[in-house]
Fold these 2 entries.
Entry 1:
Amino acid sequence: MFGFLKQVGDYSREAAAAARGITQGLAVTFDHMRRRPVTVQYPYEKLIPSERYRGRIHFEFDKCIACEVCVRVCPINLPVVDWVMNKETRKKQLKNYSIDFGVCIFCGNCVEYCPTNCLSMTEEYELAAFDRHSLNFDNVALGRLPT
Amino acid sequence: MIPPEPLRLPFATLPSGNLDLAGEFQAVLQGWGLSPGLAHALWLPLPMLLVLAAAVVGVLASVWMERKVSAAVQQRIGPEYAGPLGILQPLADGLKLLVKEDVIPARADSLLFTLGPVLVLAPVILSWLIVPFGQNLLISNVGVGIFLWIALSSIQPIGLLMSGYSSNNKYALLGGLRAAAQSISYEVPLALAVLAVVMLSNSLSTVEIVQQQNSAGLLSWNIWRQPVGFLVFWICVIAECERAPFDLPEAEEELVAGYQTEYAGMKFALFYLGSYINLVLSGLLVAVLYLGGWGFPLPVEWLASVLHQPLSSPLVQVVTASVGIVTTVLKAFLLVFFAILLRWTTPRVRIDQLLDFGWKFLLPIALVNLLLTAALKLVFPTIFGG
């Protein structure tokens, strides 16, 4: 008899606890309705990339001494440094420089190790292209100001 | 068909009888030399079309509300480009489904496959017959009223089972079986909860159920006399609509889309329409049974006497009727909103939990509630409708 009553009591206590839980849940969802949406509507709104964001690499042709450190620290030796030895000044003269962003993993090693700081990271991230060869940026393209 | 002697016409007389749309309309037609029967027959489709249009608009509104509210709950924006605030999104969805290819799976039973969605939708639409928006603002004040709705809603599982079986798909079959099991088990406590209300008002007619709740405005609503019945009814109605947390016939994680899996285009749209018409209808019926239907929280007669307006003046009649429609719709949509909020709050129950809950919890509670109501009716006949 009392065992049955205890069962009834436990059952109704469980039911009350469940009802309280659902009420609390409803309060949470109701409260969420007055919060602002976190959506960023991408093509119309854009987030500002964080500080130290690793975007497209910018290159300053005149600062480069063609030391090829960037090639050595690159995981896949990606930068192509085209130079000739100038016999009179006994210095390397840079002819062309290019990085293929279709292959680059944006690790930033080249930027970190460049002795003259001619390489730098930009906040540019919209690099999509229809042709992968157009992602192979030469020194002119690398020297453009980030959009 | 010749109407019986005391003309219970749709949209007929309001209490003191100045506003008689049906009578006026038929009088005009008879003035053109038509027979009374023909005039009546010409009048009949008008309220039906009106209510059908209202149901469709209600579906569009509730779909929009569902999408906006669920977006807000998840801190998203929701539809916003189709019309202002995305208000035309359901219309765009419907149009897309309308022009979509109608696929019947290769080894499906095409007759049952086509009949299924129709059998799901038709009883739901038919149930709008008994929804009152005002004293006489309903298609037909059937004597068996609310019982008609219960009877009609038990046709639905047949359609669900049909479409689940005929799709020749294991997910669809499982979904159909679950839907049938769920509908049948939750119909029992639902009917018992309705029975308690019927006991209070001594009538099955929806109009009389509302009328006996409107003696003192807010205070005389059935929810105060039937709090347990209200909860049981609300839970059962959500289960009948197959909405979360009872949406396991279409549990997308396990059953793809349940019995709707193989449906596309207009047949899918019928299911979609059916589920939302059912949702709005459920909201309306909860409002009618427990929240005083078209009754304004303050009694309209009292308001009219405070404003020194005679109840019989045409202005008061029109205002009362519109206030009635607006309050009914508001109450229903408040409940729909609550159902939507519930959908994004509660996790889905398992099938065994669902059946346990229906048979071992709701059914005994509904039975006790019914017996308690009967006892209280005998003890306090003035309060509990002797």
Entry 2:
Amino acid sequence: MSGHEVAVTVDGRPVVVPEGATVLDACTAAGIDTPTLCFGDTVAARNVCRICVVDVAGSRALVPSCSRPAEPGMEIATDTPRVRHARRMVLELLGSSVDLSLTDHVEEWNARYGADPDRFGPDAATVAQPVKVDNDCFVRDYSRCILCYQCTDACGEQWQHTFAIAIAGRGFDATVSTEHGVGLPDSACVYCGNCIEVCPTDALMFRTEFDLRTMGTWASERQTRTDTICAFCGVGCTLTLHVQHGVGDDDGDRIVKVTSPHSSSVTAGNLCIKGRFGAGHVHP
Amino acid sequence: MTDPRPVPVALPVGPPVTRPRRDALLPALHEAHDAAGWLAPEALDAIADRLRLGRAEVFGVASSYASFAFTPRPRRLRRVCTGVMCVVAGAEAPGADAPGVVASPCLGRCEQAPAVLDTDGGRAVAPVAPAPVPQPPTERSLLRRVGVVDPSSLDDYRAHGGTAALGHARTLGPAAVRAAVTASGLTGRGGAAFPAGRKWEAVAAAAGGPKYVVANADESEPGTFKDRVVLEHDPFAVVEAMVIAGFAVGATTGYVYVRDEYPEAIARLEHAIDAAGAAGLLGDDAGGLGVPFRIEVRRGAGAYVCGEETALFASIEGYRGEPRTKPPFPVDAGLFGRPTLVHNVETLANVLTILDPSGPRPETKLFSVSGAVTRPGLYEVPMGTTLAEVLDLAGGVPAGRTLQAVLLGGAAGTFLHPEEIGVPLTVEATRAIGATVGSGAVFVIDDTTDLATVVLGIATFFREESCGQCVPCRVGTVRQEEVLHRLVHGRPLGSVAEEVQRLRDVGAAMRDASICGLGQFAWNAIEGAVDRFGVFGAST
């Protein structure tokens, strides 16, 4: 770090952040909780959901805080009527078109911003569609997809360089897709599961979790997480084993999901098919 | 899947390229589509493999464009304009039972409304329509050669004053050319009215290279056809202006991005570039300026959003036509991430009048006039001319009808009342009454037209053209159309006032929080129709 700092004000309070920090960082430094949906900590900000927008003096439109670098002297306002309205509408627009029932914080934010996603009526267009279950590793439920671009970026040039999925179509019909919509077994997918790791809405889900949820036996309150090192090769990836204690009639413990800490210097949250899905041999 | 599956003969076949050639993607898609009439999965996969791109990515890019078909379709097509100007003139969307007839957003032929375009393999079938310029040549400046010269002849272009500005630029040198553009006060004609000189200086001063000059000919604002007329009838002017711009800002490559709906313009421009190259106006010593300059034409593929400059760059680069967040601005990081001077065709055409060897000619502005007027067409008037004067030039509303409204600036523009047509058509004067000159589209609506239908047509347009990247526009344009659909059909959800409040809430979020101008202006005209015209009776 060169040690350069940037001084801004957030809601009138002076805040100093390191050069290169974003407006979102400045808001966080000021102790302000900014809602984010498409923003992930392991891929570059795409600023597409627009829920993190703030008012920056001199800017006609609102500014996405997740991607905009803090500039010296910037006057940032995070709770103006315009900001609150935009955030409320993002929640209403997404909430009326996408299944956000597994997305963290949505209830809390709906209350905070007075969002009522039902106000567009029962006939409002949605992205509802059947879950894609085409392999043993994970499922894709695009009725939960907010098009955050994180999965395509993780699959593509930011992490995996597999390019098995991309955004296809346009407008409201845009969706995450393989080429021609073929199933994952016919695509370039290598089942690293790094797309699941970044998905903020659980549109991408381990097959184990999906099956347990379908059976009604998914019980996060009976799950523990244990960090270990993957034994498949010498890279030394940190695995976080999500273990559910007691599954249905089976009283034994079962690994139901595998993740990796985003803070890991080895993985940054990424794994390969073996680390991500290769825990089955643990269970006889 | 059932196959005829015609193998695309002109598919760029061969061994895979050594490095990924992302920018070759859009031309390759066109080549395959032109040859077969549609893009078979095998064609897409072959292009991906050859260019070393992910197959999913190629599918993702191709499927973002409305011009491409992914199921068998004849090469020979009739595109029926379903732009709001043509719908008012009686156009109807073709049914699904006519395989070679497809609906198209505004074809940019509004003076011919209801317009159709016949193509075979992407090329125009019918001869180019005569230039729709009712004014005599002596009353035109930018358009003085339009309909006068042979657009295929460089000699004829020269005989009518062509390349004189280039010679003048050679005498002045780059810095003085930039100073002349700055001194002229020229502002961008694409709609944003940004001072051109500031861009020229910024690109010239920007660090890094290569630098680019991009002509934005993705003229897709409904009701606008000025750039088509210039490209079809005076293509050498665009070439000359780009050479001068490259010389002045230190760029060696130019791109002209022309919308797919302008095949005649593309053909004539490509011919002009070839002829200019043969004559030394382009090449290693372009126009004798001592610096190289070359021009490539890139054909769009049916996406209004690609008229937004950063989406246009993404399209040329082979990505989906999705706008990028600014800053950084194109002058610093534009096409291929390099400093880029991007201008609308009309803006570039003005460079030639600024550098007229006999002194700068008076500033003029082009207006595409369509709808309920006696002589629809392209009109060139001095800056400051009033809307009423432009309507008079176009012969006014036909006898027996009454003016109801003027939609100024296209779908992203504003409806004006008959008593407002005295407004001078300048950025400042229109802004003062809450309107915008925009791209210079003047759509005249008489009393026989139901304004609510026009409003719904505009909402449908924005929903169809949203790229889908950001939430406010992707979902907001859908909700906006849903509300308007209910209102137009007299089935409001709750009270009309509640519906109007939904429109206001969605509209404000689109305006404030969308990434680009498409979403930011998707509520503009509709808001005016609600507030200024009370189309749904609930205005205050």
